[in-house]
Design goal:
mainly alpha, globular
Length: 68
């Protein structure tokens, strides 16, 4: 199990890799400013989508990230 610090570091690296450092910092700022309920957001994220649709999106995303 990772420590909280390790999770924060890995998370920031992942955000920075995908968004760039400035946009990653902006994302963190937006999350902190809003009363953001991550759990509720995740529950609604794939609402109305079938398992096949979600799998297809995940596969496309995986291929896209392998190319970069």
């Amino acid at each position: 199990m990772m420590t909280d610090t390790e999770i924060k570091v890995k998370g920031m690296k992942a955000l920075s890799k995908d968004l760039g450092l400035v946009e990653a910092e902006r994302f963190v700022s937006l999350i902190q400013r809003d009363r953001f309920d991550y759990t509720a957001w995740r529950q609604d994220l794939f609402q109305g989508m079938s398992g096949d649709q979600i799998s297809r999106l995940a596969t496309e995303f995986s291929k896209k990230t392998e190319e970069t």
